[in-house]
Amino acid sequence: MRLFDYHASGNCYKVRLALAELSVPYERVPVDIFAGETLTDEFAQLNPSRTTPVLVPDAGSPLPESGAILLHLAEGTPLLPDEPADRAQVYRWLFFEQAELMPAIAGLRFRLLTGRLEPDAPAAQRRRRAGDDLLGLVADHLTGSEFLVRTGYSVADIALYAYVHVAPDAGFTLPDAVRTWIERVEAQPGFMNDLEPYPPNARPDASVSIYDA
Predict the structure, then answer these.
(1) What is the pLDDT of residue 69?
(2) Which terminus of the chain, N or C, has less C-beta within 10 A?
């Protein structure tokens, strides 16, 4: 299988982390988001939404959306519970990560690190308040629990870890329960972290991407 991804994207990193922990062989196809490589007709055939990651199985259609890819890869493995009620909890956290956590925490980090937003701007302050509330919610859930779902480590943990572990880059302070959970995630067999910093062409004066429309 092939993975079309971007080295500095948390959404892409969490797929690479799952692949590493599952020891699944794949070909990585780098896509430079900020050089306009998702804006080509060729990439649109993989994903009309022009976002990464996109997983292309050995046989089958291209699969975009990081949450869908994680669930596909985890099927039949310990990273996805068999019991429907426990699976529903995994889905819950995957939806939470994309709908709530990523816009507040990852969105602020991206804008600060690429010079799209000043730290003291009202929009930054709003995102930081929202992110603090969300991190508190996660901490409350993790108090007394090792992982997000009662059955143990899952793709829910992978999805949240991808963005929470770099939240301090955007000025967030991690609650104790979240820091301890991060340590547990990083102690998992096969864990790796190859998330790279945003390069110079991610800045708005150099970027050609869907983020500059």
Answers:
(1) 98
(2) C
